């Protein structure tokens, strides 16, 4: 506890007051302090783990501390997988989800779940385009609080522990329309990295990793092969974007993978274009199918425990682990009316009783 809040571990001596707070949180990923949004979700799932430990201890008082820790850790991992494949990916991939990810059919030991170079060095960087310029914060009474620009939210743990905690940030996330990934906001192109920018870094990373050009990936994905910049009109409706590509590259087959892929218009009901979907979807399918510990693989959980995990949702985790969150959208990834947390399904942990 610090300043009346359940927070991640950190050196409290570095935060005696808000003016001098320089502390950074400690978590399983060193990027926990990079942005307040990331910090908030690291904290949210840490709280969920601790909540599960407390509940399981009441249900199974004979369990050792290690057993409680490991079982809670296993459940949280399963919740994250369920949220990813049942809530997040269908909204990112839209109509491409069924063909690129599809239904889980069990662990396949022949599947190589290694993260592909084109995924980590190019395709999954599309999320940088979803970064907002400004993030609102909303108080418990639905009153707007002072928000923050993206750059103001980077490397500033003090804004979390001294300025209202996680709840205003979570409410702001849940009530703010997303930004489509086809354009980068000025915060990350002009302010975050001084003389360079995140888009440039992404392009150079792809070149450093030896990624083939955008057109080559379209060929590998069985998509059309644009030979002229006018041919791109079927993939990129924006005339301004196509003209910018024409000014920058000598020919379509010179376009960097990251640049061409993020500029594509999204697939039906999705947020990314067909080339990105062709790389992102199969990667998640391989990661799932090649993982013998994936939560739906028989033997990981009992049948009735698995049914409870499938009831889990990001909305429920926000309800259970916010400071005083009482309302959420039914689907946390979809902008919609707020409903009482009492209407959001919960897991029944009595199914873990031994």
UniProtKB/TrEMBL annotation:
PANTHER family linked: OXIDASE/PEROXIDASE, SHKT DOMAIN-CONTAINING PROTEIN
Gene Ontology CC: extracellular space
Name of the protein in question: Peroxidase
Binding site for heme b: 128
Tagged with keyword Iron: yes
Taxonomic classification: Eukaryota, Metazoa, Ecdysozoa, Nematoda, Chromadorea
Record-linked Gene3D superfamilies: Haem peroxidase domain superfamily, animal type
Matches recorded under Pfam families: An_peroxidase (PF03098)
Keyword line: Heme, Iron, Metal-binding, Oxidoreductase, Peroxidase
A GO biological-process term: response to oxidative stress
SUPFAM superfamilies linked to this entry: Heme-dependent peroxidases
Gene Ontology MF terms: heme binding; metal ion binding; peroxidase activity
UniProt keyword annotation of Transcription present: no
